């Protein structure tokens, strides 16, 4: 059962698409106050587990920390960070005697104090009491999740090639860079379907442009890549450069499509191309215009995009820079109230909330400060593209994913988890984010395998890839000025071929389970407790996940480890894809085991009385030979394999 409570005058987010009648009074769970903003308080029992919050820090169980839903350009994902790129305001309190879910539909800063101030107290609070609160009763956490998934709408369905492996690096600038990536993969028989184009492909970092000096015949280059079964995936940023003669700028001015300042003039902020305007994607007319701009690349054969910098990220505003310069002059003249050391802090820091306070959107004919709707920007930028694709290429699925998001965007695209690091702890962080993201509707998800920032190592990359075998988005991505981390930068490339090859052997199963989850408002990744709710040990496991209905994954995430301990809630078959192409299968009893896993091996566990399909390795998705399909696991079991053409949109 789902109940909706309205407080104040909420801003419509379109996160929920099912009509839910409004209930009177207050929820039967917790205490609500609207005296000073909004707060919901609930006293948790010691055994309660709190799930949800999508892309957020720390564990699957969210108890014991403070989380703030505030889409943030935060590249340092350390344990102290309260906000990351997404804002996903859905939680489940899963107790022994009763469970309930809460979705707080509020488009800006929202704080979840989940046993942080007091270990037994959950407090959800925000500045303004203008929101929709959805309360979901169900038999258990899994049931509550599925009810929530039903009211927020079907998850995005990408083309089938998007389940292949992708190689990316910030620094590929010219055709030869991309050709080298492709040739090295094909030469070593390492599967590859996508190569990503970061900001260097553009003309001066301007959206919907191509550097014609580097790519004099861009369409010809796109066609060349497609002949080798490679899909190029260009990046699109949020800011439109202020430059006379640049079509996106001129059109945005003419149509009055840009975000404003309070005085009605266009808001300016610096990002990669310099000073930019932001498209007012919360305005339907501006959203339609911005979405149509993707056609400049679609018309040249591009069929995949990733949206970035759309929190929106801001380097500075002219007003903010002027304030810093004023303070600096005061410091240097000795007239400042601040100590001299403050000059470094004030010039290096970035009080982005002050910049956002200068930015306004036109909503229903009224100017609304960005700080009131901040978490909706990346969502609606991706929505703009998706809605345009439905008109521009109605007969094809387009790959689309984003950095920033809010619940509702899951209908339009996937997400990657942003600028992680080449740290062992970030393998585990990625793993723990996956079920929470699925609960909030985001199925097409993944992290930057190998780590985006810092310098990876061969063993770290291999272990990252072994997790990435199972994530719908499987991409090796790294930052400029870090160690190059394509597989061919390391010795023994056959080990990378073995690990990445497992992805293609499992792809029919992974695609099948993804489609079942998307079409059935279900989960692709689940905590063990969602399947084994009566198992006290399974309720505590956070480094193993259920995938689909057949398998459990337990990746190795520790440096120099020969394997890892694994808990089996029931009898399962331990499967290991070996480097020589053979598949090891051993029946293991319920309980604790130690699984030995070499760097060039990929493990998984098949549930009792279940089986999964596997095929022979292929070098790209379209080359997968379904006549080689066989089943492993409990071969007398049944399995329903979902198949389609992988490109036609699902009605």
Task: Report what the structure shows.
The chain is α/β, with parallel strands linked by helices. The protein contains 14 helices and 36 strands. It has a 9-stranded parallel β-sheet with strand order 24-23-21-18-14-13-12-26-25. Strands 27-28-29-34-31-32 form a 6-stranded antiparallel β-sheet. A hairpin with a 3-residue loop joins strand 28 (545-547) and strand 29. The chain starts with a strand and ends in an 18-residue tail after the last strand. 51% of the residues are buried. The model has no long low-confidence stretch (mean pLDDT 96).
Short description:
By secondary structure, this protein is α/β, with parallel strands linked by helices. It has 14 helices and 36 strands.
Low-pLDDT ranges: none
Number of helices: 14
How many strand units?
A: 36
Helix content: 10-25%
Q: Indicate the overall shape.
A: globular
Average pLDDT over all residues = 96
| Proportion of beta-strand residues | 15-25%
Alpha-carbon Rg, integer:
25 Å
Termini Cα gap:
27 Å
* Strand arrangement across the biggest beta sheet: 24-23-21-18-14-13-12-26-25
Largest sheet: 9 strands, parallel
Structural class: alpha/beta
């Amino acid at each position: 059962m789902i109940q909706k409570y309205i407080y104040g005058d909420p801003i419509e987010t379109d996160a929920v698409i099912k009509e839910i009648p409004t209930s009177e009074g207050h929820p039967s769970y917790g205490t609500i106050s609207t005296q000073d903003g909004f707060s919901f308080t609930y006293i948790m029992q010691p055994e309660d587990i709190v799930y949800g919050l999508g892309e957020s820090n720390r564990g699957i169980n969210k108890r014991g920390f403070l989380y703030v839903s505030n889409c943030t350009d935060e590249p340092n994902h350390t344990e102290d960070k309260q906000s990351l790129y997404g804002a996903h305001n859905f939680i489940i309190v899963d107790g022994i005697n009763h469970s309930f879910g809460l979705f707080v539909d509020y488009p800006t800063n929202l704080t979840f104090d989940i046993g942080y101030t007091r270990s037994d107290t959950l407090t959800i609070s925000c500045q303004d009491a203008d929101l929709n609160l959805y309360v979901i009763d169900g038999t258990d956490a899994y049931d509550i999740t599925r009810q929530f998934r039903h009211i927020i709408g079907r998850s995005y369905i990408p083309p089938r090639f998007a389940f292949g492996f992708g190689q990316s690096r910030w620094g590929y600038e010219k055709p030869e860079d991309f050709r080298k990536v492709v040739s090295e993969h094909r030469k070593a028989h390492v599967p590859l379907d996508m190569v990503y184009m970061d900001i260097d492909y553009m003309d001066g970092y301007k959206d919907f442009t191509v550097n014609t000096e580097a790519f004099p015949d861009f369409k010809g280059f796109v066609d060349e890549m497609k002949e080798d079964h490679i899909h190029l995936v260009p990046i699109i940023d949020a800011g439109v450069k202020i430059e006379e003669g640049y079509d996106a700028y001129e059109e945005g001015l003419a149509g009055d499509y840009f975000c404003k300042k309070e005085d009605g003039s266009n808001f300016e902020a610096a990002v990669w191309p310099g000073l930019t305007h932001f498209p007012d994607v919360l305005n339907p007319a501006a959203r339609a215009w911005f979405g149509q701009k993707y056609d400049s690349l679609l018309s040249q054969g591009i069929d995949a995009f990733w949206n970035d910098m759309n929190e929106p990220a801001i380097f500075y505003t002219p007003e903010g820079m002027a304030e810093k310069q004023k303070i600096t002059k005061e410091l240097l003249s000795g007239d400042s109230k601040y100590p001299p050391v403050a000059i470094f802090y004030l010039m290096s820091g970035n009080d982005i909330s002050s910049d956002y306070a200068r930015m306004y959107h036109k909503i229903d004919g009224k100017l609304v400060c960005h700080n009131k709707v901040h978490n909706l920007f990346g969502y609606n930028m991706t929505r703009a593209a998706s809605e345009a694709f439905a008109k521009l290429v109605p007969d094809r699925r387009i790959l689309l994913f984003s950095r920033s998001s809010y619940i509702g965007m899951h209908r339009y695209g996937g997400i990657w988890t942003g600028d992680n690091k080449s740290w062992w702890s970030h393998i585990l962080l990625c793993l723990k984010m996956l079920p929470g993201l699925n609960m909030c509707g985001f199925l097409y998800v993944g992290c930057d395998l190998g780590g985006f920032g810092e310098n990876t190592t061969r063993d770290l990359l291999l272990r990252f890839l072994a997790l990435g075998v199972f994530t719908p988005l499987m991409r090796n991505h790294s930052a400029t000025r870090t160690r190059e981390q394509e597989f061919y930068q390391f010795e023994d490339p056959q080990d990378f071929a073995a690990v990445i090859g497992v992805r293609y052997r499992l792809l029919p199963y992974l695609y099948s389970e993804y489609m079942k989850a998307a079409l059935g408002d279900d989960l692709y990744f689940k905590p063990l407790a969602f399947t084994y709710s009566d198992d006290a040990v399974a309720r505590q496991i956070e480094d193993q996940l259920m995938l689909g209905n057949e398998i459990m994954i337990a990746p190795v995430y520790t440096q120099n480890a020969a394997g890892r301990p694994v808990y089996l809630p029931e009898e399962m078959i331990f499967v290991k894809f070996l480097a020589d192409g053979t598949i090891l299968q051993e029946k293991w009893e319920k309980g604790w085991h130690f699984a030995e896993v070499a760097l060039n091996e990929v493990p998984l566990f098949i549930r009792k009385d279940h089986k999964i399909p596997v095929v022979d390795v292929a070098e790209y998705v379209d080359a997968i030979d379904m006549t080689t399909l066989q089943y492993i696991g409990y071969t007398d079991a049944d399995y329903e394999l979902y198949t389609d053409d992988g490109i036609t949109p699902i009605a």
